[in-house]
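note to self — DONT lose this again. spent like an hour looking for the file last time. sequence + predicted structure for the chain T wanted, 196 res
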Amino acid sequence: KELQRPWRFQNTALFKKMDLFLERCHDLLDIMETANLFFHLENLKIGGPAGINRTSAIEALKMQFMHHFNELQTLDYDMLDVLDTRFESDYDVFRDAVKDLERQLGVIMTTSLDEDAAAISAVFKVVDSFDGFTDRPVVHQEWITKQMPVLKAWQTELLLVQDIFQQGKDKPVLYANMPQTSSAILWANGLLSRIV
């Protein structure tokens, strides 16, 4: 038997203000998560021939982010007041600035991959350095363009290591002043470190 409802309400009318508040909270959470990512940039150092220049560029990007973040912190209204619509425009400006900074970070990452990451382990080190940013849509788009060449290079390296292992497993390279078993373990460990 169906329950009779004497009053009929539309959920959108009843919970509109609550939905706006939740949306505002999600926007503020996005700001804080973005800030957390950019605060970790101070630990990011890039090696290689142009590493100093790229590290300086990353530090400049962090300073630009801090400028935009500080502007949000000095707003003279309550960010949780959903009736105050000034937040939307300020948030859009902040989000656009962050997208531009992320785009620049993506360019730095892909340039580092192209120029400095000759070995597959160096590629993974570069990508790991940008951990967190590779999940962001703008940087992720840059990373997607590099994934297939990286996977092909890793496959080539894997097949090469497999061939070296198959050819030398019965008679591995012996190192001077080392027992045969220790030498074999060191040789196999060296091959493993090339692919892991």
